Amino acid sequence: MRDRVVLMTGATSGIGKEAAIALAQQGATLLAVSRDRARGEAAVAEIRRRSGSGAVELFLADLSSQASVRELARAVLARHDRLHVLINNAGTLNLRRQTTVDGFEETFALNHLAPFLLTNLLLDRLLASAPARIVNVASAAHKYGRIDFDDLQGERGFKGLRAYADSKLANVLFTHELARRLEERGAAGMTANSVHPGGVDTNIWRDMTGLLRLLILAMRPFLLSAARGAEPLIHVASSPQLDGVTGQYFHRMKPRRSSAASRDPALAARLWEVSAALAPSS
Questions:
Q1: Domain residue limits at 93
Q2: Which residue in 32, 120, 158, 169 could disulfide with 281, CB within 3.0 to 4.6 Å?
Q3: CB-count exposure of residue 241 (10 Å: 0-12, 13-18, 19+)
């Protein structure tokens, strides 16, 4: 990864921070995105210390805001004339319905629209820097998701776990459609893959209550550490064995067949068009 520039969202905690440390150790220039300055600065200091690399930069962005996503893209493009890897890792799981400053349901906005918009805003720079990779962090939960175009914002009977699964299905659909469009353009050396890191003990479970909290506590001894959970992200972002591999869904370190819904080309194409209308990149 020497002389490679990597932009990662959700890089200041959990699997994102561990992946950032590993990629910086491999020689990458690491651009870490954080919503909070103090937390971001502390994480960057830790990444630098643990990786032994000074090539770690902090970018601030609230990914639930499309204006902030656009400002992030502008800042990255202004400061770096090359970008080789984009890792869309930031995500949330809300048990109660919340809306963003743009009026979108937050899980859908942060988990799907933000990476969709950021990727499209940075796509030309990635293409110009090829070989380059886009890595979307999804989840095995995508198998339980559905895309209801009549209720994308979860206004009818919102359920947090359902919204999370729906957003992860959207991640895999987006990845497959992006890979198809890149191949159609003849974008040699440009790949897009999604990855399920496994069941990981991270902050995404922090808001669980009641029986769900008890279940998570009972499962905790069996969950992967953040360092183990980061391994698939590092692998898909950097392994020479994956040069030219695109449009795949990785379950941990191996490509697997994703759900039937996630492989529906008509569904993927429609989701792209709807997402482009909700989060235009031009």
A1: 5-200+226-278
A2: 120
A3: exposed
81-128 pLDDT, tens digit per residue, is 999 999 999 999 898 999 999 999 999 999 999 999 999 999 999 999
Identify which of 255, 256, 88, 96 has the alpha carbon closest to the alpha carbon of residue 170.
Answer: 88
Q: Is 144 a catalytic residue?
A: no
In a domain, 221, yes or no: no
Residues of the chain whose pLDDT is less than 70? 199-224
Question: Considering the domain boundaries, does residue 28 fall inside one?
Answer: yes
**What pTM value is reported for the model?**
0.91
Contact predicate 17/47, CB 8 Å: yes
In a domain, 181, yes or no: yes
Q: Which of 59, 104, 108, 164 is catalytic?
A: 164
- Looking up residue 135, the CATH number of its domain turns out to be 3.40.50.720
